[in-house]
Amino acid sequence: MTSQPSQRHPPRYCHAYRPPANGACGFTLVEILVVLAIIGIVTAIAIPSLLRSRMAANEAAAIGDVRDAGMEAMQQAGPGSPLVCPSTPGRFSGPKSGYLRGCTSGVFWATPLTQNSTGIRGFGVDATGRICFTNDGSIPSMSKTCETLK
Prior knowledge:
Blueprint: H1 29-77, E1 94-96, E2 99-104, E3 107-112, E4 122-125, E5 131-134, E6 147-148
Antiparallel strand pairs: 1-2, 2-3, 3-4, 4-5, 5-6
């Protein structure tokens, strides 16, 4: 019987032509730091756009709430009558979607709870159904020269 010579496999190398100490290959510190840097860059790019879309969604919800409350009050008051704020707090009062909502002097309004965080503009609707806004987050004056939504 002749024995066959054992065939030795060449040593296995993982990184930089070094054989692994315990037989398993892993990631180097540089590779892990590069991956963490890429994740940090992507996060830094994504977070501001996500916050802007959240503020836009809060403003859209506030506009819808103001419009709904104004339409409801106009239907109850009748044509040509001024809007009357409800005497008891109803479903259109208090905080919701980052905006504080309420009614004063026949104007239904919504203002951001935290300026530049939950929203930027303040909204209001009057007896004509016109929705006005302010860029500083305050309650609109509802004068004839207020900025209206298009």
